[in-house]
């Protein structure tokens, strides 16, 4: 298993938009909802919840695509249309980054699966926790704590030299 090293950088398919993640992920996920299936053109979307203050766009200007609502905004590259990250308003303290946009996503394993109720019958991941919809708000502190204290199961988090 590859090691997660901070900071991590990534970008869209064409390289017009680049970003940096400077704080450890809070949670890794796979979402099986039909909206994510359509957005990703796949069986599910993958996400890394990262602290809002540990994420920055370092080159280019992403545009809003997908959902244009008051609460959820999907950010894309205007050139190649890659779905790069999702912000929620008002800012809950995190945003969701697509791990496949990272320069190195080999360390990524989903920790939770959401919307199993809408999953394609054959679509599974090695996630440790599965939910028919989203976890209850009361479940998140325990999930975040468990993810943060895992000892090398999916990632080993070490700061870059």
Protein described:
- With 161 residues, the protein is mostly beta strands.
- Helix content is 11%, strand content 35%.
- It has an 8-stranded mixed β-sheet. Strands 2-3-6 form a 3-stranded antiparallel β-sheet, with no helix packed on it.
- The protein is globular and about 35 Å long.
- The chain starts with a strand and ends with a strand.
Euclidean distance between termini CA atoms: 20 Å
Give the neighbour order of strands across the main sheet.
Answer: 7-8-9-10-5-4-11-12
Written as H for each helix and E for each strand, in order along the chain, the element string is EEEEHEEEEEEEEHE
Stretches where pLDDT falls below 50 for ≥5 residues?
151-161
Beta-strand residue percentage: 35-45%
Query: How many strands, which pairing sense, and closed or not: the largest β-sheet?
Result: 8 strands, mixed
**What is the arithmetic mean of pLDDT?**
91
Helix content: 10-25%
Strand tally is: 13
Q: Which structural class do you get from the secondary structure elements?
A: mainly beta
Number of helices: 2
- Report Rg: 15 Å
Principal-axis shape equals globular
Short synopsis of the structure:
This protein is mostly beta strands and 161 residues long.
């Amino acid at each position: 298993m590859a090691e997660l090293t901070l900071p991590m950088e990534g970008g869209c398919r064409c390289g017009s938009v680049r970003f940096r993640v400077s704080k450890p992920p809070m949670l890794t996920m796979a979402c099986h909802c039909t909206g994510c299936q359509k957005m990703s053109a796949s069986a599910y979307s993958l996400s890394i919840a990262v602290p809002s203050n540990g994420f920055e766009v370092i080159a280019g200007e992403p545009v809003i695509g997908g959902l244009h609502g008051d609460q959820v905004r999907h950010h894309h590259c205007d050139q190649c249309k890659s779905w790069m990250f999702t912000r929620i308003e008002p800012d809950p303290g995190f945003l969701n980054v697509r791990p496949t946009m990272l320069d190195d996503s080999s360390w990524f394993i989903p920790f939770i699966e959401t919307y199993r109720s809408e999953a394609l019958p054959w679509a599974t991941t090695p996630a440790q926790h599965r939910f028919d919809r989203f976890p209850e708000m009361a479940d998140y502190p325990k999930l975040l704590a468990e993810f943060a204290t895992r000892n090398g199961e999916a990632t080993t988090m070490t700061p870059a030299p």
